[in-house]
Amino acid sequence: MTNIHTALTTAAHPEGGTVTLADIRAAHDRIRSGIYRSPCPQSIPLSDLTGCRIWCKLDLLQRTGSFKERGARNALLLLDAAQRAHGVVAASAGNHALGLAYHGKLLGIPVTVVMPRFAPLVKVATRSKTLAGWLAKWLAAKGSISCTASTTPA
User: Fold this and answer.
1) pTM over 0.90
2) The domain 2-17+67-149 is classified under which CATH number: 3.40.50.1100, 3.40.50.720, 3.30.360.10, 1.10.10.10?
3) Segment-wise mean pLDDT, segments of 10 residues, the chain, 154 residues
4) Whole-angstrom Cα distance, residue 109 to residue 101?
C-alpha cells in the first residue's frame, strides 16, 4: 500500500520544491470532473464586522461535507497504475478519511483508513455511519480503529 502523502509529494515534485500556480491549475483540471464547484458568496455579517469584504466557500456542500475531498481526489489521481492497484493507507480521524474513502470508491482504488483510538467518540460514530456505504468492513487494530474501503461489495 502507498502512503498517500508521500505519493502526492513525490508525484507533484519529484525533485522537491514548492507548489506553483501551474501545480494548482493542473490539480484543478485533474479533479474538476469529480468535485462539486461549491459557491463562494459574500458574507455581509462578517464583512460588516471586520470592515472588509469577506467571502465564505461553502464546502459543506461537497459530497463529504468538507474541502478535504479535493486533496484526496487529487492525490489518488496522481498515483500510477501499480500504486492504484495496491491501494493507499492514511491515518485520519475525520474528513480526510471520508474524502479518501469516497473518491477511492469512485476511482476503484482500495483505501485503508486508520483512525486513532483516541479520536472523539462522536467522530468515530459519525465516520462509521457515514463511511458504511463506501467501506467494506471495519477492523479492530491494536492501538487504533482501522477501516478498509473496497471496490467490491462486502
Assistant:
1) no
2) 3.40.50.1100
3) 57 72 95 95 97 95 89 95 90 80 89 72 60 50 52 42
4) 9
